[in-house]
Every structure is written in C-alpha cells, then in structure tokens.
Amino acid sequence: MKIANHDVGLCSWSVHPKDTADLVAKLRQVNLNHVQLGLQNLLMLDDKRKHQELGHLRAAGIVLTGTMLSFPGEDYSTFEAIRRTGGFVPDEQWPLRRQLAKQAAQFTADLGVKSIGTHVGFVPHASDAGYAEARERVRGVAADFAAEGIDLLMETGQESAVELLEFLHDLAAPNVFINFDPANMILYGAGDPIEALRVLGKYVRHVHVKDATPSGQPGKKWGAEVPFGEGMVGPKRFLNALKEIGYAGPLVIEREAGDDRVGDVQKGINALRAAAAIDR
Q1: Looking at residue 279, what is its pLDDT?
Q2: Which pLDDT tens digit goes with each residue over 131-154?
C-alpha cells in the first residue's frame, strides 16, 4: 500500500502476533505488505525455528522496512523506571545488551535489511556525569553495526530535537540516524514533533506513524497514546513536514495501547489517506 508516495507498513509488535504466521494474517486484514520486524523474541529462537518463522514472511511476500531491537528488563511503567532500565545506559546490563545488539546486527544483515531501530536510553546532558560513557557505548554499538553494513536508527522521544541533534554531531558516527516517532515527543514531553522533524531533517531515515495527547506533567508523567489521527500530531501537517524535509521512506504504523490493535491500525491508515487527499 502506498499513501502520499510512501510505502505504508506496520510495526510487528503492535498487533501482539503469536508468531509470524499470525502476523501475516493480521497484515492481510488491513491490506499491508510492509513490516518493521521486532527482533527480541526471534533472537531467542534456535536456527531451525528462526528459519520456520521467517519462512512465513517470505512465502507471503512481506517486505521488511527494517528491524527493531528492544531488551529484556526494560521497564516502561514510569519515567523513572525507564530512565534506569532503558537501552544501553544501565551498567549492569551493558555487556549482555551489547552482545544482543551484535547478534541483532548479524541477523538483520542475513535478512538483507539495512537498519535497526532502538531506544538507546536516556542520554544525559553533555555537562552531566555519564554523558561520555553513554556516547562511547552508542559509538561502540554503531561500530558493531557498521561492520555488518547496518545503520543504527535512534528512536526519538527522550531528548528534545536540539539535544538529539547535538548528540548526533558529537557521536560523529556515519551510520547513526533517526527513527522518528512523533508521538514519543508528546508522550515524553520532549517538544512539538513537527518542529522536531524540521530540526532533525536529513537524519530521519525511518518513520513511525503514532499519535498521543500530552500529560499535564510533561517530563514527569506519560501522555496518552491514541490511534493516529486522534491526538496532537495532526496527520496533514505531519505529511507536509515529511515532504518539506524530503523524506521519501516508509510510514510504519505503531500502536502500543488499546484493546483493538488491528482496528486502530486501520484508523491510522484511514487518517493518512484522508490527510493525503487534502490539498496543502
């Protein structure tokens, strides 16, 4: 499916598939053929089971827009919990998570896919203790990915766009780019997603279609995720901003709340279609 000249896809984890056969069935319900594939469960399988699971995707002609890496032990229950447990920041988890990231890079390369998205964790301010360590860890993972021909796509959310841009410049890693999620900017209280797109511009290589309403205590309590088109992002201004920055890649719908995930994905598709049909 194409909308506004973008391939439209689905984040595999959004619909809680039991396995890849179930994922294919749910993709068929909404007439989608593109997927960003979550890796956490697949990486834990033996080679035979991996081959079986991937076989369902190949047989169905599913196109992978990229893969996504999350880690056991990440806790999104509160801001403080994910600040402690997210990404490459926790010292006690770093050796295992770097090894999992290496495995993910090898696996992704074997799939013929060129990028892995991930939350690297809350990056401290440049003047804070821990900043240099966080920077070197992300550089190390980026180097591991580069050895497999893979780009590391940092997902937006925790930092403002300006802070994230400064971190990218400081990293000076040629294979680190952005997986842009507009709702995360709202959920984390990190700024307006449309302005963030304009700031991050050329670094945006993959985009999530997700929406949210803000918290009354931004930066301390979560906002609420809602179906795309029902929150603060604004589908038409979102598509316009993507066109402004020259983004021509996939639009991949992510839904991480609600009891009717497939129905909410269809709402997102409908909102994109409606926005694409409106003149600028």
Answers
A1: 59
A2: 999 999 999 999 999 999 999 999
Q: Enter the tokens of residue 263.
A: 């129905």
Q: How confident is the model at residue 100 (pLDDT cuts 50, 70, 90)?
A: very high
Q: CA 88 to CA 95: how far, in whole Å?
A: 9
The reply to whether the predicted model has a pTM over 0.85 is: yes
Q: How far is CA 99 from CA 29, 122, 125, 178, 272, in A?
A: 36, 20, 26, 22, 38
Contact of 212 with 233, CB cutoff 8 Å:
yes
Q: 10 Å Cβ neighbour count for 77?
A: 9
Report the SS3 class of residue 257.
coil
Q: 27 to each of 4, 33, 55, 126, how far by Cα in Å?
A: 20, 7, 16, 42
Alpha helices for the chain (secondary structure H)? 20-29, 40-43, 47-59, 79-85, 94-110, 131-147, 161-171, 182-187, 193-200, 235-244, 261-276
Structure tokens at 180: 């842009």
| Cβ atoms of residues 27 and 10 within 8 Å | yes
- Give the dihedral of Cα atoms 208, 141, 130, 124; nearest 10 deg: -10
Tell me phi and psi for residue 76, to 5 degrees: -100, 15
Q: Find the length of the chain.
A: 280
Q: Coil, strand, or helix at residue 127?
A: coil
> What does the pLDDT look like over 175-202, one tens digit per residue?
999 999 999 999 999 999 999 999 999 9
> At 230, phi and psi to the nearest 5?
-110, 5
